[in-house]
Amino acid sequence: MGSEYDIINDHTLCLINEYVRRGEYPGDFLLSCLENKFVAAVTQADDLNRIAIVAIAKYIYNRIPSAAWGSREKVDRWLDKGGSRGDGTDDSALDLIERGKDAF
After folding, report:
1. pTM of the predicted model, to two decimals?
2. Following DSSP, what letter does each residue of the chain receive, concatenated?
């Protein structure tokens, strides 16, 4: 049985996870998702991400630290500190990649 996140393409998952780990800018679409601005996100999404937007929202809510998303201010702080590496979090402790793929 597959995961509810299987609909999210690998590139999008990679961008989310690199944002979390290293504080890398994820692009306008994911920035809108992380800032909880889903009207903007829908208008910025490509076809693959538009289809997966509910799963992307669930992934953000369930799988990434709450300090990394929810408002522009929280996202800006996360970017400024360089992601989880900026707070001393061990990357191996971040169980973010739902699928067992090493594409990241």
Report:
1. 0.82
2. ---TTTTS-HHHHHHHHHHHHH-----HHHHHHHTT-HHHHHHH--HHHHHHHHHHHHHHHHHS-GGGSSSHHHHHHHHHHTGGGGGT--GGG-----S-----
Give pLDDT tens digits for 69-86: 999 999 999 999 999 987
* DSSP state, residue 99: S
pLDDT band of residue 101 (cuts 50, 70, 90) is: very low
Higher pLDDT, 1 or 57: 57
CB 32 within 8 A of CB 40: yes
Biggest alpha carbon distance in the chain? 39
- How far apart CA 83 and CA 75 sit, in angstroms, is 10
DSSP letters spanning 24-53: ----HHHHHHHTT-HHHHHHH--HHHHHHH
Q: Which amino acid is at 13?
A: L
Give the total residue count for the chain. 104
